[in-house]
User: What shape does this take?
Amino acid sequence: MSDELCVLPISEDTGDTGGTPSNGGGSGVTPTVEPGDTGVTTVADLLARAMEPEEVEAQQGQVVSLPEVEERPCFRVYDGWTGTDTGRSLRPGVWYHTMSAPKGDRDPVPVDTWICGPLHIEAQTIDDAANNFGRLLRFKNTAGRWRTWAMPMELLRGSGEELRGELLAMGLEISVRERATLGLYLQERPPKKKVRCALQVGWCGRVFVLPDAVIGPDAAGVIFQSGERGHEEHGQGGTLDGWRSEIAARAVGNPLFVLGLSAAFAGPMLARCNAEGGGLHFVGDSSTGKTTILEAAASVWGGANYRRSWRATANGMEGAAVMFNDCLLALDEISECDPHEVGNIVYSLGNGRGKQRAGRTGAARVVTRWQAFIISTGERTIATTMAEGGHRSKAGQSVRLLDIPTDRLHGCFDVLHDHASGAALSDAIKRAAVTHYGRPGRAFLERLTHDHRDFAERLERLKGLPDFNRQDFEGQDKRAAGRFALLALAGELATEYGLTGWPEGEAVKAAVIGFNAWRSLRGRGNDERRQILERVSGFIERHGDGRFSGADAAGESQVRDRAGWWRDGQDGRLYLFTSEGMRDALKGFDFNRALAELESCGALPKPGAGGKHAKSMRIGGRAPMKLYPINPHKLTGGENGA
Assistant: This one.
């Protein structure tokens, strides 16, 4: 005999797709919802109905009445093996009670068809914009364990293969012959109970949403909804005390390590401080401890699956960033990324917006958004990596991921904490990171979601510290200083919450050291100005003898692809660029802005009465022409201090 279905009658009073059989049934059947019960108590109340295997076993041997003819068709759910008044036993699951089609002079007969394992529809989910409807499902997998899933309704489109694939992967047993009926069961009637859903990890009002938990004062009314089952990044292991003693304690006296752990706590602070996204890029030789710091920082939020690789396209990295919204995005080894992709990835990660794409109709699709703090590692800087792909690093990219050199006393470390070497300390931290993980981030959120202080004001006070607010700082220096001030705030707050065990001020001190290290690697002043000066200086070094000739030489010199002339004077040799030569040297920069930067450092004279930087000069016996006189000595030692 085929397993045929028995489902709870659909009650017009409740709108639920389940109910008690006419004889009252037993606890193995979905309970009746009283008329008028249309609101959600809490998500926790709904999920508390999940039963452990031993409770299900207690339901064996119960007897229920199958639906009468007038009640069919209907669905019922049985959590355990259930006897019927006909003497037949029904296996656990969703059953569809219907009537057979009449054949000839034969009357229809009851048909009971098994659809899938026990699967309850607890509530409908909906976001704040009254979109993204779904179903809060509770089901038992083939291992005998109950689990829940907020299923997006869009997975039911078409034949529903995506939905069945996800349910099968999560362990729900589904009848091969009744696949279409499963979709009918899930859509038969929307539950009147409603739950607010969040589609991303991160802040949702006053609560913080993780794939398996919602943290905050209003957590009971929110659930995470996703069309995919795989959200193993935010796992937990070990203990918070173990993490504090075996990881955080070893950061004391090691400013780069403190900086990395502070960065791990900075993600949730971005929204609370109205700060922009961005991050740090630890640069140094292989086997110095860069990846160790990355893994330790990732252990704040999850285990080994939390860390990500740079080996991705710009589109793929968008998806990864969305997964770590308002958290830490940990990217290891930039050399694994295509150099042509690095620039686009850095911009998109810092901006927090994905690429604008068209839908099937040609209309613009919704742009993905995120906000995360990033830690990256590599043996080369962002600019060097981009140069390998033939691209120039722009100033906006350099201030989104700040290059931090890792040449300390013992690789990335200064203090070994009773270990024989930096490598031994690194190994001990790595072992601890795969044992104790995930708990510090949740403990931080437990405190932060109930902390109503004005952190934006507190961040401004940190930005006002002398180390972050010197008078000679320009725009990019100030942006970077704000990033390090945010790290100081996050690290000090984690210490205040009792998570790190660091002395007060440890995170601030590490942030100052990190900021100074960034400035020492980058140089002083505006980054784009420095790039312009370096570009023109490099052009002269490469082409000074080939594309220039003496302006006062007797006779006409044959120069291929001429960029200008040179002329010696009291202040040394000047290079007189033609308009085409000047634009060639400044290729990739805004021409007028680049001329202004050359003027500001004294390499180019101030503009004349007409506001033009080009000067009228006579070369040999030619008529006067407009040329740009460049003093190469000012390009390397001028007022910019580069």
Notes: The longest helix spans residues 475-496. Residues 1-41, 50-59, 638-642 have pLDDT under 50 and may be disordered.
